[in-house]
Amino acid sequence: MTPRPNPIIAALDVPTAEAAWKLARRVAPVVGAFKIGSELFTRAGPEIVRRVRATGAAVFLDLKFHDIPNTVAKAVAAAVRLDVQMLTVHTSGGGEMLRAAEESAQRAARECGLPAPLVLGVTVLTSLDDRALGEIGFGSSAAGQVERLARLAVQAGLRGLVCSPLEVAALRRHLPAPVQLVTPGIRTGAEAADDQKRTLTPKDALAAGANWLVVGRPIYAAEHPRAAAEKILASLT
Ligand code: C5P
Predict the structure, then answer these.
(1) Domains present along the chain, CATH in parentheses
(2) Stated pTM of the model
(3) To test ligand 1's pocket by mutation, which of 41, 214, 220 has the most ligand atoms within 8 angstroms of CB?
(4) What tens digit of pLDDT does each residue of 25-66 get?
(5) Distance between CA atoms of 187 and 11, rounded to whole angstroms?
């Protein structure tokens, strides 16, 4: 039996390449991947992705592409060439955009001789509630919209989604089993919830059906980030 991979994705939500690099070296042995988001990527560029990949760690490039299909396809191909293992696109970009993203990931990976990264669909941002959705012209509730966009993403060929911890169980009931669910909003109970309103513990999120856990502040803002990550890992068994 192959052991389950380490499901912890440590978010490198720090402002500089040096801070990211220091954090990545400290916690690489005890996490499964690192997430690089818009702030760090805009500051440090593709070089930080290459440096983190050079440690052997998997990289989740969280730039949430949302544009016309041709542009998204080219951005996805560029991410594949950086050898990232996961990346994000907004499912509200529509079925054609999502198909273009997945096809581009597969094609670019073949051309580079790399495994295709997981193209993850972002459904409804957790910062949007029903009122905010109404404001931008969406009639359905956040929960209904999440389900609708999740189905669209899977029909378009995406093999994974990002979702809030409280959406995991419902999505698991509706989606094919192989769809990978990646969940932020993870809190151990020992630290503040910060601005996360809907949280689960690492163990509960996995039990609800998540495959991967995005953990930011509980690791990078801890006094001892490596010890914090080790504790989270130990809590999973
Ligand atoms: O510090 P914390 O653990 O809350 O960080 C969670 C990470 O997941 C951040 O990088 C944040 O941008 C990201 N994220 C989120 N909620 C979403 C999507 C992404 O918190 N719905």
Answers:
(1) 8-235 (3.20.20.70)
(2) 0.95
(3) 214
(4) 999 999 999 999 999 999 999 999 999 999 899 999 999 999
(5) 13
